[in-house]
What does this fold into?
Amino acid sequence: MSTTPRPKSHRTELTGWGLTAPTAADVVHAVHPSIVDDAMAAALAQADHPGPRSANRGIVARGLGRSYGDAAQNAGGIVVDATWLDGIHDIDLETGRITVGGGVSLQSLMERFVPLGWFVPVTPGTRLVTVGGAIAADIHGKNHHVDGSFCSHVTSMTLVTPTGPHVLSAHSDPDLFWATAGGMGLTGVVTEATLQMVPVETSYMLVDTERAVDLDDVMDKMLHGDDDYRYSVAWIDCQSTGSRLGRSVLTRGDHARLEDLPARLRSNPDKATAFVPRQLARVPLTPPSGLLNPLTVAAFNEMWFRKAPTRQLAKPHHMTGFFHPLDGVGDWNRLYGPKGFLQYQFVVPDAEGETVRRIIERLTEVKLASFLAVLKRFGPGDPGHLSFPMPGWTLALDLPVGYPTLDTLLDDLDAWVLEAGGKIYLAKDSRLAPETFRAMYPRVDEFSTVKRRVDPDGVLQSDLGRRLGLCGPGAP
It folds into this structure.
């Protein structure tokens, strides 16, 4: 029996951002990359232990906990808190290439480098994501149709695996690199990464906003106008019916130059380039279930639609409001009550836009209140075995867990998405069936082959990985 010392840890109950399915794990704070090595060695020693198989629960990394489901949980095993790996190791301000710890957040990168003329290449709807988490989920943003997803801008990374550390790129070890891109942390722990940032002149966006009267209208506007913008997203009202089904607010834009800004900002370059995120409010308590119901969500949707201009061009918006409006409300995930919520995000090919309509119609029929519904278009995907984006339409929906037949409803939606040749985003998922997952991700066997190369004993595990059958031969 191995005597490899286990790093200091504390047993903690963890959930995803949706606050569902809590499980307890031994959390290790990776205050130095060597702690990651120690934790990996301890997990490997446990896997070699001749005791009961159920005790070998492995290891997974965790960032800021913004995956909605169970991707960064590991019931009974080790969870490495990677947020301590937040150093800035190297920066070339001429080219915008930076090397950072895997635990540094996108918010930190924006705060530090936007004033110096560089923005992150891809950001999702929250800036509270670590670089390691961005790689593990291969995150996408409003610019996917132009710039692709996050890992297309990663030039190299250091990945700690049970077989040792690997310094890899898409050229030096493409199989392991692209298995890690979207691999949900199941190929190892990213301790360092080199990224290519995007040049900007200011911390503002020039934004065009317009209403769309229904789903056909917004999809037509996106099909025939998105290529003129770097960033595009549509908020969809999933409560409206009839001739207003899918009415939307479409917001598109690009980075503002200093000359594009009003005089009060042009005359103060420090203010024009500052990135200082502010929390405008906080949800101090978890309210009772039912606060977000068809009546309250319908009222919000009506207000949000009417508040939007019918058509407004080239309006300066600060980056924080354009990219991350919900980050201005602390702990907003509590609004769904003690049972929590899930986010259901799918993508279907360009030719299957009718599936988007079908799903929105189903939600309105059953009066399921989605507080947030966001429609985007994807461009070509990258080579990641489990990466989510593919050319087509993606719709993200926040849904309360308390709805009585939610599981049955989502199983039906899964079947429609699968029939259309689409798939579900693993970073948002908390309930997909393994057989449906395998059908949606036909390269899963290729992924598993690469994973076995660096994890032959199945040490890299998570609740999501076990649920979907991704944890390998050593997993219980």
Observations:
- The chain has two domains: 87-200, 204-432.
- The chain has 15 helices and 21 strands.
